[in-house]
Amino acid sequence: MRMRWREYRATLLVAALSAAFGALLLQGTVLLTALVAGDAIGEKESVQVALSLVSVVFFAIAVYVGGIVTANTVGTVIAGRTRDIALLRLVGADARRLRAGIARDGILVGLAGAAIGIVVGIALMEALVLIGRSSGDLPADIPAVVTPMLVAPLVAVTVVTWLSSWVGSRRILAVTPLQASAAAVEPDAETIHSAVGRRIAAIVLIVTGALLLGGGVVMGLVTMLGVLVGMVGGILSFSGIVLAAPIVMPRVLRLVGKAMGSSPTARLAAENAVRNPARSSRATIGLVIGVTLVTMFAVATSSYYDMILRASEQYPEDYAGADETLAVTIGVFSVLFGFSAVIAAVGMVNTLSLSVLQRQRELGLLRALGFTAGQVRRMVLAEAAQMSVASVLFGVVLGTVYGWCGAQALLGSMLGGGLVAPSLPWFVLGGAVVAAAILAAASSVAPARRATRVTPVAALAVD
Amino acid sequence: MTITTTEMGLAARVAGVSRRFGVGHGAVVALDDVSVGIRRGEFTAIMGPSGSGKSTLMHIMAGLDSSDGGNVWLGDTDITRLPDRELTLLRRRRIGFVFQSFNLVPTLDARSNILLPFDLDGRKPNVDESRWIESLVDTLGIAGRLTHRPHELSGGQQQRVAIARALATRPDLVFADEPTGNLDSRSGREVLTLLTEACSRFGQSIAMVTHDPIAASYADRILFLADGRIVDERPRSTPEEISALMLAMEATR
Ligand SMILES: Nc1ncnc2c1ncn2[C@@H]1O[C@H](COP(=O)(O)OP(=O)(O)OP(=O)(O)O)[C@@H](O)[C@H]1O
Ligand SMILES: [Mg+2]
Predict the structure, then answer these.
(1) Of B60, B61, B102, which to mutate for an interface test with A (greatest number of A Cβ within 10 Å)?
(2) Is A184 part of any domain?
(3) pLDDT tens sequence across A111-149
(4) Domain end (from A156, A179, A202)
(5) How high does pLDDT run on average in chain A?
(6) Is B25 contained in some domain?
(7) Which residues of A touch B158 (CB under 8 A)?
(8) Gap from B166 CA to chain A (nearest CA, Å)
(9) Which segments constitute the ABC transporter domain (chain B) (predicted)?
C-alpha cells in the first residue's frame, strides 16, 4: 500500500523535532560540563552525572510523546484507509505483510527525520557557540561539542518511530476484505472486540505505574534518584491511560457534550464525538498529552518554588541567592518542557485535521441533505471545542498528579524538603486552556473549509 | 420565457443543460444540451444504459452539482446561480434524495438518519408527520432496525432507511437513484407500491432512476437517456414494452 506524502509529514516532523532536541541536549551537556566543572576531577563527574540525568529525562519524555503522536498519526491514517486496505485484502494481500510495510516505512521516515533533526541540532549548537564566543560569554578554548554520542538520539528516534508505526498499524489486522463494500467508513467493531484485553492491559499499566510513582515520591524523600523510578511509573501509567482512552474519553466527552446546547449542529457534534470512540480518542490524546505536560511542569515548578521558599525560611544561609538560581532553572525547564508540548501540538493539529479531511464524504452527505456549509463548519468546530474542553480537563487533572509526584521525587530529599501540598499556578493553566482552544479550532476549521468548498456531489464522490 | 415552471405543471425543469467532466483528451460529456421537466404529482422514471448521465442529471436537478451551461429550475426558483446557502435551504425543505450509494451518516443510527432533515431544520416532526414516518417505517419493514447504525444494516436495509428519510418531510420533489437496486423482488415491489401511493395519495412528485423494466412500469412517465441526451419519452408502459425499447436502444448504440 502506497501512502501519500501528506500522511507522513507529521511523522517526519515529529522525528526531526525529537532528534534535534536530543542533539541539543547532548551537546549542551558536553558544553556545560566543560564550562562548569573547571579542573577538579571529582566535581566534573558529579556535574556530568546531574546534567546527564536531566538530559536523559527530558529526552525520554520528548521521544515518548513523539512515539505516541506517531502511533496516533499512523492509526488515524489507517482508519481513513480502511476501504483501500479491505480492497487489497479482497484481491489477496496479506494483512501482516501490509502491516510490515507500514512499519518499514516507519523506519525510513524515522531515520530521515532523525538525520535532519540531528543536522539541524548540530547547526544550531554551532551557531550558539559562535555567538557565545564572539560576544565573549564563552571562552575561546571550549572543546568541540560534536561527539560520536550523537548517534544515540538518531538510533533512539528511529527505533521509536519504527515501534510506534508498528503499534499504530495494528488495526490493519482487524480489517476484513468485506469492509471494502461496507457503507460505514469506520466500523467500531475492532474497539469492541479488543475491549476486554485493552481494559486489562490498561489497568495493569495504570496500577503498576501508580505504585512506581508512589515509590518514587517516597524514595525522593531520601535521594534524587527517586525521580528515575517516578519517571518509569509516569510513563507506564500514562501509557495505560492512552490505552484506556477509547473507553474513558467518550464518557468525558458525553459530559461536556451535554453542556454544548441543543441546536442541531451542537447535538450532531456531540453524538459524533461520542459515537466514534476510536476516532475521538485518537484526536484528543495528543491534546491530553500537551496539557498534561504543561500542567505537570507548572505544578512541578510551583511546588518546587514552595519547597525552596519553605526551606530558605528554615535555613537562610544555605539558600542565599536561591531566588536567582530558581529563576534560571525555571526558565531552562520551561524551554525543555515546551519542546515536548510542541511535539504534542504537532500531533494534535495533524490528527484533528486528518480526521476532518477523512470525513469529506460524510460532510458532503450532510450538505446534500440540507446542512449549510456554515452549519457543517460549526458542527466540526463544536466537535473540536468539545474535544478540547474534555482533553484540557483530563490533562489538568493528570498533569497536577504527575507534576506534584515529579517535584517530590526530585527534590523531597533536599535540605528542608519533605512533603509539600501541590500548588496550582492558575495563569499557566489559563494559558494552556486558551492555547488548546485556539489550536483545536485552527486545526479543524481549515480542513472543514476545504471539505465544504466543493459541491456536495464532488464531496460524496471522494473515497 | 414568461410562462413559469409551475404553470407548466412541472416540479423541476432543466433547459439546455450540459455537463462535462475533465478537460482535454480525457474529457467526458455526461450531459449534452438536455431540456426536460419533471411533472408535479407524477411518478417519473429515468432509464438508460450505464454511464448515460442519469445520476448526473438528477444531481444537477437537485442542486447538488453545477452545470456547464443551461438553466435549472426547482419549482419557480431558478437555481442555476443560486448562492450555496439558499440552495442548501431549498434542498433541505423541498427535496428528498436517495443516492445510488453512501446514503446514511455513519455515526447516526437509523432513526436519527430518518429524522435528520427535521433536525437540520431545528424542529421535531409534528403529530401528523410522526404518524406518516411510523407508517413509512412499517411499510418499509425497518421498524426493528431503528436503533442500528448503518454498518449494522444490510445494503437493502440501508436503502430503505434512505427512502424513509427522503419521504419523511413530504418534500416537493423526491429524487431516487436506483432505490430498488439492492432489494429482492418482493421488497422492491413494496417500495415501488409505497412510492406510487405517495404519488397518488399525497401528490408527491417523484423522479426515479432505474435499470429495471419492472420498476419503470410503475411510473406514470418514462424518460430514456443515452449518451447524455434524452432520446425518448413514454407514458405508463408494461415491462415488456420497456424491455423492448431498451433492447432497441442498446442495439443502435
Ligand atoms: N466526477 C466525475 N468525474 C469524471 N467523470 C464522471 C464523474 N461523474 C460522472 N462521470 C462520467 O459521466 C458519465 C455519466 O455518469 P453518470 O453517473 O451520470 O451515469 P449513470 O447513467 O448514472 O450510470 P449508472 O447507471 O452506471 O449509474 C459517465 O461516463 C461517467 O464516467
Ligand atoms: Mg448512476
Answers:
(1) B102
(2) no
(3) 999 999 999 999 999 898 888 888 877 777 777 778 888
(4) A179
(5) 81
(6) no
(7) 183
(8) 9
(9) 12-252
Number of domains present in the structure of chain A: 2
Q: What is the pLDDT of residue B12?
A: 92
**Would you say residue B184 lies in a domain?**
yes
pLDDT over 80 (residue A242): yes
Give one DSSP letter per residue of A383-417, joined into a string. Answer: HHHHHHHHHHHHHHHHHHHHHHHHHHHHHTTSTT-
Interface A-B: count of C-beta contacts within 8 A: 89
Whether B212 maps to a domain, the answer reads yes
Domain count, chain B: 1
State whether A174 and A250 are in the same domain: no
pLDDT for residue A29: 85
Cell 534524587 appears where?
A: A224
Q: Which amino acid appears at position B107 of this protein?
A: T
Strand pairing report for B28-39 and B10-21: antiparallel
Q: Are A162 and A107 in contact (CB under 8 A)?
A: yes
Give the model confidence (pLDDT) of B98-110 as tens digits.
887 778 888 788 9
* Residue A224 within a domain: no
* Residue A175 shares a structural domain with residue A255: no
Select, from the ranges A77-81, B151-155, B191-195, the one with the highest average predicted confidence (pLDDT): B191-195
- Across the interface, which of B84, B92, B104 has its CB nearest the CB of A183? B104
The verdict on residue B30 lying in a domain is no
Closest CA to B224 of B34, B86, B66, B97: B34
List CB contacts (< 8 A) between A366 and chain B.
105, 120
For residue A65, give the H/E element and its range: helix A41-80
B120–A184 C-beta distance less than 8 A: no
- pLDDT tens, position by position, A145-182: 788 888 999 999 999 999 999 988 888 887 777 666 65
Is A186 domain-assigned?
Answer: no
**CA distances from residue B49 to B29, B45, B57, B226, B250 in whole angstroms, order as listed:** 15, 13, 14, 7, 8
- Based on the domain organization, do A318 and A420 belong to the same domain? yes
Structure confidence by residue, pLDDT tens digits, B207-244: 999 989 999 999 999 999 999 999 999 999 999 999 99
Give contacts of B105 with chain A, Cβ < 8 Å.
362, 365-366
Query: Residue A34: which domain range?
Result: 1-179
> What percentage of chain A has pLDDT greater than the value 70?
90
Ligand 1, atom 19: nearest CA belongs to which residue? B51
Question: Which structural domain, as residue segments, surrounds residue B119?
Answer: 40-65+80-251
In this structure, the answer to whether residues A256 and A165 fall within a common structural domain is no
A89 or B159, higher pLDDT: B159
d(CA A284, CA A394): 10
The residue-averaged pLDDT of A188-204 equals 70
Phi, psi of A101 (to 5 degrees): -60, -45
| Predicted ipTM > 0.95 | no
A178 interfacial to chain B (CB closer than 8 Å): no
- Select from A179, A209, A234 the last residue of a domain: A179
Verify that A248 and A175 share a domain, yes or no. no
Q: Quote the CA–CA distance of A135 and A124 in Å, as a whole number.
A: 16
Same-domain status, A268 and A404: yes
Is A236 domain-assigned?
Answer: no
| Longest alpha-carbon distance in chain A | 77
pTM: 0.76
End-to-end CA distance of chain B: 35
